[in-house]
Design brief:
- The chain has about 325 residues and is α/β, with parallel strands linked by helices.
- It has a single domain, classed as Aldolase class I (TIM Barrel).
- The chain is about 30% helix and about 15% strand.
- The chain has a 12-stranded mixed sheet with strand order 7-8-9-6-5-4-3-2-1-10-11-12.
- The chain is globular.
- The mean pLDDT is about 95.
- The protein binds S-adenosylmethionine and iron/sulfur cluster (2 copies).
- One iron/sulfur cluster binds next to helix 10.
């Protein structure tokens, strides 16, 4: 039962991008040479309203989605985001989460928790202030991200930390970050740098393989593998042998996991993407704004998922990495 694609993968997760704008210019995501003053972000009227997002999400939930993640761009730049969280929380018993750079998290954490957010993922690529400022490229201090993490934890939100590792940039930060969060209850996920979009100048040589990350951490703090908790779990998890928590690695480049990919993505302007590396999305906004019924929306989403064949990461080569693809800041990672 339920909705499955051509490879038998269920539709389980929906990532909702609420804006394509960001207050950071991370070198691996929105390089400032490309996302400068002249870059044309989506105009406001192009964005789905909270009502439209709520309606679309409701249809996805009826189709079997159990996990909603708000992302962007930087989702906390979308004004009154907690109002959207409250609407989505009312859709049912869902895992309702947010990925953020945490620049605005200290001031927003309590309102988000009260609105019904179930947890939060914070991106943090280095504890070395100089490295961190260079990577976000807007000179943002790491201390404010750490304050955002503390505020979220104080508000009762479980916190995960995401670290994108890029060769020659922050690989020396990996063990530091593991050490810092050991014993805090905040699992860290180390992510292989991916060839998303067409602007970050990705090269295979820039990728630090997950195996190398696990070996580096394990040589200081012995680790053992943990079984996947559910189908579609993209992180390979490891626990510290001394019981001080766990880490995960997301080996999207060196060990792709398309066979278990149960995610759909909705861009801020209402396009449905069935792969992070898709070139084209399906325009749900046009359907939402055409006066269509929920049944018609349901049928449109069903038709897209049932035809889905995506498995980009399993087919990746040096040639595919140069193809035209949507940007991470647009589709939300
Ligand atoms: N601005 C928010 C943030 O940074 O958490 C949410 C959006 S961001 C696009 C979502 C996630 O994608 C972040 O954890 C970020 O580190 C990750 N990401 C961005 N570009 C990436 C790349 N080229 N390879 C791997 N992960 C990337
Ligand atoms: Fe902004 Fe997140 Fe991309 Fe960094 S990773 S530029 S914080 S959207
Ligand atoms: Fe899913 Fe596409 Fe990534 Fe494969 S490449 S895991 S299908 S998003």
């Amino acid at each position: 039962m339920g909705l499955h694609d051509t490879l038998g993968r269920p539709l389980h997760d929906l990532r909702i991008s609420v804006t394509d704008r960001c207050n950071f210019r991370c070198v691996y995501c929105m390089p400032s040479e490309v996302f400068g003053r002249d870059y044309r972000f989506l105009p406001r009227r192009e964005l789905l309203t909270f009502e439209e997002i709520e309606r679309a999400a409701g249809v996805f939930v009826n189709l079997g989605v159990r996990k909603l993640r708000l992302t962007g761009g930087e989702p906390l730049l979308r004004r009154d985001l907690e109002d959207l969280v409250a609407r989505l929380a009312a859709l049912g018993d869902l895992d309702l989460t947010l990925t953020t750079n945490a620049a605005l998290l200290a001031q927003k954490a309590r309102a988000l928790a009260e609105a019904g957010l179930t947890r939060v993922t914070v991106s943090l690529d280095s504890l070395d202030d100089e490295v961190f400022r260079a990577m976000n490229d807007v000179d943002f201090p790491v201390a404010r991200v750490l304050a955002g993490i503390d505020a979220a934890a104080e508000a009762g939100l479980p916190v995960k930390v995401n670290v994108v590792v890029k060769r020659g940039l922050n690989e020396q930060s990996v063990v530091d970050i593991a050490r810092r969060f050991r014993g805090t209850g905040h699992p860290v996920r180390f992510i292989e740098y991916m060839d998303v979009g067409a602007s970050n100048g990705w090269r295979l040589d820039d990728v630090v393989p997950a195996s190398e990350i696990v070996a580096a951490i394990g040589s200081e703090f012995p680790l053992e593998p943990v079984d996947a908790a559910y189908r579609g779990e993209v992180a390979q998890r490891y626990r510290y042998r001394d019981g001080k928590g766990e880490i995960g690695v997301i080996a999207s480049v060196t060990q792709p996991f398309c066979g278990d990919c149960t995610r759909a993505r909705l861009s801020a302007d209402g396009k449905l993407y069935t792969c992070l590396f898709a070139v084209r999305g399906h325009d749900l906004r046009a359907i939402l704004r055409s006066g269509a019924t929920d049944d018609e929306l349901d049928a449109a989403i069903r038709a897209v998922w049932e035809r889905r064949t995506d498995r980009y990461s399993e087919l990746r080569t040096d040639d595919t990495s140069g193809l035209r693809k949507v940007e991470m800041s647009y589709i939300g990672g």
